[in-house]
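quick one before i forget lol
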Amino acid sequence: MGTELADLLVHSSNILMLAAYSVRDILWLRWFAVAAALTNIPYFLLQHTTLWPPVIWALVFTAINLYQILRIYLERRPVVLSEDEQKLYQMGFGSLRPREFVSLLMAGEWKNATAGDAAVVQGKPVSNICIAISGSLKVRKDGRDVMPLKPGHLIGTALALTGEPSPMAAVFAEPARYFSWPLGNIRAFLDRRPDLRLTLQGLVNRDLAAKIEQLSSHLPG
């Protein structure tokens, strides 16, 4: 193998690695790493004695990078939400990226309710956090209506943090469509995605502030 060609391959490979370390986008970094590894392989193969160990390792690194590149492309595909998912997303989850929102949905399930079904039972701990996209609810205490809740409010978030029995009940006033997250699933989701903890806490805080404002409008005076 000519010395000039060998030098060209080595220099090209190192230039590609330099480019890989210079870019911020992880996708481009992996593509440059693949190109650098493939550029080095002919150099190892065309020696008087074939250098198999570096060839094998270059192929291993190339395979790993190509697998990760495929994963990145799959993750960056446009997210298509169903009609119900789009409605729920617009109700209060707009601060999440669509793919993050889909990941959050995978921790729960869609449900239908009839009039009179309880989302929260007075005197019992909350086991699920839910949000209705259609159908209103009534907050009740000792059988008396305290205030209505329109679709879009998170139900059970404050009580879920304390684990104490609920002092009030939340009952569907009409047939409804809602999404429900079991508490165990939410905790497991946040353990896997701690980067979303602050974002979701912000959503909960805004929802709580809206409820307090709505409650104050129903109090005498």
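fyi The two ends are 92 Å apart (CA to CA).
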